[in-house]
Give the backbone structure.
Amino acid sequence: MSALNVIDKIGLIMTKPRSAFEAILLDESRRDSYLILILVALNSSLISYSRSSNLNMINLLYSFGHYLLIWFLYIAILSFIIKRVYKVPGGFIEFLELSNYAQVAFFIVAVTSIINFLLAPYFMPKFDELISIFLLLMNGIIWWFFLHVLLYFAAKAYFKIDVAQFIVSVLISWMLLTAVLIPIFFAISLLLGVVSI
Amino acid sequence: MKTESLLGIIFIAVILTSMLLSLVPSTIKPVENTVKASGNEKISSVIINVKTGGVRLIVNKTIDGWFINGTYSGEGEYKLSQDKSYLIMNFDTAIMEVIVGKSVKNIAVFIDTGFLHCIVYKDNISMTISINNGNTNLLCVSDNISLSLSISNGNLDANIITNNITGDIRIKNGNADINGVLSGGRINYKVINGKANVVSMGFTHKSREISNGVEGELFSNGASDLSIYLEDGNLDLLIARK
């Protein structure tokens, strides 16, 4: 795993996403994808807490763990659904390593956060709260869409499925993920005392 | 350098910059300013307008002058009117303590989201309070009060000890705790989507349930229903009865 190799792969995903995942699949070493995942998860946690005064190690680890847990569960469920419904062969770890590269989509959030950090002190007071929420929502939607486009290319390269099959799998996965995640997060939050009954 | 390598480097740089910026408090949190000011002017009116935050307001009975102490972010300013009779405060986000002297006759507080702690010792005062989202604690130990209080999405805790009051209290989506030791005047209150807990001495209390809340009235039976305080100027008063 060389740093240059990771950088080239990221660049390839950003320029030619369709062929990038095909090329990465042929590459034997895909462990570097975890580096991208960790970087993105850490960045996401920092952005989440940057506006609050509660930035401490526990909150950071909690948020970091949240991100990784959601991602692992999501990819596990997605890979399980694709394999079961469309009877295609494949392993979870291999698909996870390939899917981790889809985290490059976080680029959009990072760019927005930089703009936000630099310009917010000058412009945010003039923004209506509703406009801020709308911009945040739009940013989230664009990121989600971009992430799933990249995830589709990863699934297409690995499982050889088409768009319709991918959309059906994503929909089922999200439904299952919601059913699994809500009780888990509720239990963790209860354990940490974030919520109380 | 290949385009792919360049884009990859940009990606890493953007991610690292975003992380670093998240860790630098001054770039991620709104700039907080401190305001501390005072004066000896005998102001007659105080107008406080705060979008988000909290205000602690004390109206003194014995001393003159005014004093402001607090922090704010976003846009904000305080100013005295040209004739030095009005103190006007406009702040986006602020936590403020405001102390004013016995010359004050009118108070107007408008808070969009936040709280108000108000203590009034001074007699002969007119108060207009409007809170959109937040709670109000009000303590009045003064005579001749004219009170207009409106809260949406919040609670009121009012303790009033007075010889004479004319009050109108409206709470929407919240509860009202009113404790009064009163001897003259009238208070009307209406609480929508909430409860009213009213304890009073010296007044007759009538309340009735309405479809979505409760409304009531505190009024004195004596001759002090009409009380006029006039510090200066003239008053033409005509009372007619059928």
